[in-house]
Amino acid sequence: MCHHRPWRIGVIVSLVVAYDDCRGIGRGGSLPWHISADLALFKRITWGHHIVMGRRTFESIGRALPGRVTIVVTRSLENVPPGCHRAASLEDALAIAGQAGEQECFVIGGGQLYRAALCHADRIYASEIQGEFNCDTFFPPIQPEEWNERFATTITDERSGMRFRFRLLERRGRALPMPDILSEWANQG
Known about the structure:
Elements: E1 12-19, E2 24-26, H1 36-46, E3 50-54, H2 55-61, E4 69-73, E5 84-87, H3 90-99, E6 104-107, H4 111-118, E7 123-129, E8 137-138, E9 147-156, E10 163-171, H5 180-188
Parallel strand pairs: 1-6, 1-7, 3-4, 3-6, 4-5
Antiparallel strand pairs: 2-8, 7-10, 9-10
């Protein structure tokens, strides 16, 4: 069980994750699915913000993501490409975001970083992909009694026909404003 341990950095710590029915998030260092609607949602949520990822996730992406400030948590990668910051720990990464005035920082993987961040997370933006994909990397279990569901919807990807459930979970005891993009979405439907 994870007891929430917020850092006093003034930044909302959010995890953004897509996982299958077994909480699988990856296979062989990459996503085992390609769902355009989920990728577009990820872009919309994280655009203009700091994103934090582990070294292996960064290497699988291969570059900084446009429109975001990329922070790579690593002790082994000496040089990171232009547009990226290097941090020795998750705490250092969040401090970089906080010092830049970031209000909400997004941890985007992989498995080790999710495990380290879960106890500190205020929010989880989860795309629950229907099916099992023989993954070798997993999102850690969450304790339902620690989280409130603030938003949920089911989405069908037009290109692939795949369905997923998108949920925003918020740590119990936190009174955070609804993210703008989800407020807009909720008001549309």
